[in-house]
């Protein structure tokens, strides 16, 4: 990426005496690894090694309640999970959440970026307000929205009754699809600001001259939006979308605060938590983790690609 | 120029109404939940969720805030301990995480060496790996070595999960710094590290502030990791304490709402203070050098 400085640096090295140059060269060679060392130690100890251990757990019969009864059982954990009702149910919930959270986050996020991109007296205040939901701890987010969708006389029910949309309070948090809709909205509300900021950063990189040229050509606001704004912010929308899908797959806190660990709203992650830390079945929990990893690896590839796309912009 | 502006103004009248409407919707949707939570937090318990269509309670009370802040009740003890635990974990995470991220980002963005692409991918891919892939063995390792319920070790786990994001942000920014700057420093006889400390670091404060903010928000919001690794009273963060008001105890919604709002204050404050760096930092990181 930055080839130029190296060339220059090498000429500088050549000018010094050869022995000193050799030392410098060696130093140059190991310097990057020295800089990366703290990161590598941390990541190996706390991420890469544990991931490998999880895989070895997943092939074992391993319950913390029976510490002496550990044996290698191959893929049995995986097969049992794939056959279980719980898995299918929570997979459906995860997919539902994935689709709705990604759509809502991207639409809200991009709209947010468009609103924030216009400069006016209040734009500083707007930005301040826009990032507030991002500051919200997800568990608190769920709690605060629970007051809004409260099954009895919560805000939405009061509003709906007052508007005559319903006569009796709606039980938002017990019905499966209603609950998942609520979880999607609540999660999108928290994740839209990040998507919005990324898109805003993208909008700011579009040269103003393009709009001026388009205006001179007689192009209206909507047509410049379609032909300039939208296509040029696509890579950024891509980053926002993929980061939203990572968020969506990893929803946990909002479901816990909106419906507890009840069966209705559980997604793969909740199912994984219950298997591992409630039933203390580490073998099966680990296998489920690997299944989740395999299922989401597609998103992972997309994510990496979108992140790199932006870098190759340089 | 002047003429241009005039023309723009007349042309933009239609969208202006649209813009105002969109802004209004944005304000209502964003601030609404905070306002509603505030209303709940000042509503007396007996009026809560009663069979009425009134949006505002007949009487207001600050009792829930008193309960949380008077330092004598059981609630306030647990709540303040949770706040302190959260602050401690966030401070440790930033102190350890930021320097590591800066060094990593500099090496990955500005140096050429064997395995660079591999290390970069290896780091970035961990962003999409589910927490459970690491937390299950970590729980066992931590419990065997008595590392559970220790803020320091909890923070190390936070760092390992936020490092990829912060490194990515910073390395984009470093890569966008004009090469002439570091070249000039090199000609003056600056080594890589000298150049880094004297040239790169001082002009990178927007992205360092932005990624510090992101790290602050992410660690403050953690629930799942501390639930598993640090759930004792001495280490559990305010997010867990607040959620317990709702689940473990006889439910007091007013206190829960008040606690939730108070728990948002530190991250919201940080976000407000550092917001401009968020835009400058992330914008420059995505512009061509």
What does this structure look like?
The complex is a heterodimer of chains A (314) and B (289). Chain A is built from 14 helices and two strands. Chain A has helices at residues 3-15, 18-58, 76-83, 85-117, 123-130, 132-135, 138-148, 155-162, 176-204, 208-216, 221-249, 253-259, 268-278, 282-311; strands at residues 60-61, 71-72. Chain A has a two-stranded antiparallel sheet with strand order 1-2. Chain B is an all-alpha fold and 289 residues long. Chain B has helices at 2-11, 13-41, 63-69, 74-110, 116-125, 132-144, 151-176, 179-187, 192-203, 205-220, 224-229, 238-247, 253-285. The two termini of chain B are 29 Å apart. Chains A and B meet through α1, α2, α4, α5 and α6 of A and α1, α2, α4, α5 and α6 of B.
Explain briefly what this protein structure is.
The complex is a heterodimer of chains A (314) and B (289). Chain A is mostly helical and 314 residues long.
List keywords for this structure.
heterodimer; A: 314 residues; mainly alpha; MetI-like fold; two-stranded antiparallel ribbon; 2 strands; 77% helix; B: mainly alpha; 2 domains; disordered N terminus
Q: Biggest interface in this structure? A: A-B, 109 and 120 residues
Which range best describes the helical content of chain B: under 10%, 10-25%, 25-40%, 40-55%, 55-70% or over 70%?
Answer: over 70%
Outline of chain B, from the CA principal axes?
globular
What is the average of the pLDDT values of chain A?
A: 88
- Low-confidence runs of chain B: 1-11
What is the tally of helical segments of chain A?
Answer: 14
- Determine Rg of chain B (CA atoms, Å): 24 Å
Distance between the termini of chain A: 8 Å
The ordered H/E elements of chain B are: HHHHHHHHHHHHH
| Biggest sheet character of chain B | none
Name the shape of chain A in a single word: flat
What is the CATH class name of the largest domain in chain B? Mainly Alpha
Give the CATH H-level superfamily of the largest domain in chain B. Answer: MetI-like
CATH topology of the largest domain in chain B: MetI-like fold
Give the helix/strand class of chain A.
mainly alpha
The order of strands across the largest sheet of chain A is: 1-2
Number of domains of chain A: 1
């Amino acid at each position: 990426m930055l080839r130029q400085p190296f060339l220059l640096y090498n000429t500088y090295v050549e000018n010094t005496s050869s022995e000193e140059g050799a030392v410098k060269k060696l130093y140059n060679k190991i310097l990057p690894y020295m800089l990366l060392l703290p990161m590598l130690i941390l990541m190996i100890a706390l991420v890469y090694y544990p991931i490998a251990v999880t895989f070895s757990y997943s092939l074992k019969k391993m319950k913390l309640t029976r510490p002496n009864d550990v044996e290698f059982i191959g893929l049995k954990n995986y097969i049992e999970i794939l056959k279980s009702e719980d898995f299918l149910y929570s997979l459906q919930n995860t997919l539902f959440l994935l689709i709705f959270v990604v759509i809502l986050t991207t639409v809200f996020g991009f709209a947010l970026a468009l609103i924030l991109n216009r400069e006016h007296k209040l734009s500083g205040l707007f930005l301040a307000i826009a990032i507030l939901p991002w500051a919200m701890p997800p568990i608190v987010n769920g709690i605060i929205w629970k007051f809004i969708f409260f099954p009895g006389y919560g805000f939405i029910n009061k509003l709906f009754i007052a508007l005559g949309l319903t006569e009796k309070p709606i039980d938002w948090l017990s019905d499966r699809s209603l609950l998942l809709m609520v979880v999607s909205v609540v999660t999108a509300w928290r994740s839209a600001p990040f998507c919005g900021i990324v898109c805003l950063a993208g909008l700011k990189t579009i040269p103003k001259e393009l709009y001026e040229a388009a205006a001179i050509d007689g192009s209206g606001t909507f047509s410049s939006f379609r032909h300039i704004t939208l296509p040029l912010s696509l890579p950024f929308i891509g980053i926002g979308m993929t980061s939203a899908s990572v968020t969506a797959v990893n929803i946990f806190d909002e479901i816990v605060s909106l419906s507890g660990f009840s069966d209705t709203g559980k997604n793969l992650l909740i199912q994984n938590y219950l298997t591992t830390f409630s039933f203390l079945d580490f073998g099966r929990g680990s296998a489920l983790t690997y299944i989740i990893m395999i299922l989401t690896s597609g998103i992972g590839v997309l994510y990496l690609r979108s992140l790199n796309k932006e870098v190759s912009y340089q | 120029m002047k003429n241009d502006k005039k023309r723009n103004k007349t042309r933009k009248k239609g969208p202006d109404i649209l813009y105002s409407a969109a802004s209004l919707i944005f304000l209502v949707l964003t601030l609404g939940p905070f306002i509603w939570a505030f209303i709940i937090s000042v509503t007396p318990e007996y009026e809560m969720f009663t069979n009425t269509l009134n949006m505002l309670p007949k009487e207001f009370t600050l009792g829930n805030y008193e309960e949380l802040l008077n330092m004598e009740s059981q609630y306030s003890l647990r709540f303040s301990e949770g706040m302190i635990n959260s602050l401690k974990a966030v401070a440790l995470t930033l102190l350890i995480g930021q320097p590591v991220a800066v060094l990593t980002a500099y090496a990955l963005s500005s140096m050429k060496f064997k395995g660079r692409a591999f290390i970069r991918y290896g780091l970035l891919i961990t962003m999409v790996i589910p927490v459970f892939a690491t937390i299950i063995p970590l729980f066992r390792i931590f419990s065997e070595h008595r590392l559970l319920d220790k803020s320091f070790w909890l923070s190390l786990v936070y760092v390992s999960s936020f490092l990829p994001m912060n490194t990515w942000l910073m390395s984009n920014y470093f890569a966008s710094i004009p090469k002439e700057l570091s070249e000039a420093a090199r000609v003056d006889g600056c080594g890589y590290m000298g150049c880094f400390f004297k040239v790169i670091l001082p002009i990178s404060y927007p992205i360092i502030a932005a990624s510090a903010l992101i790290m602050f928000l992410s660690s403050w919001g953690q629930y799942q990791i501390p639930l598993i690794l640090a759930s004792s009273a001495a280490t559990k963060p305010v997010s867990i304490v607040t959620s317990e008001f709702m689940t473990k105890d006889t439910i007091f919604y007013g206190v829960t709402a008040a606690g939730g709002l108070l728990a948002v204050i530190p991250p919201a404050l940080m976000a407000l203070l550092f917001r401009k760096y968020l835009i400058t930092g992330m914008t420059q990181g995505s512009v061509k050098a």
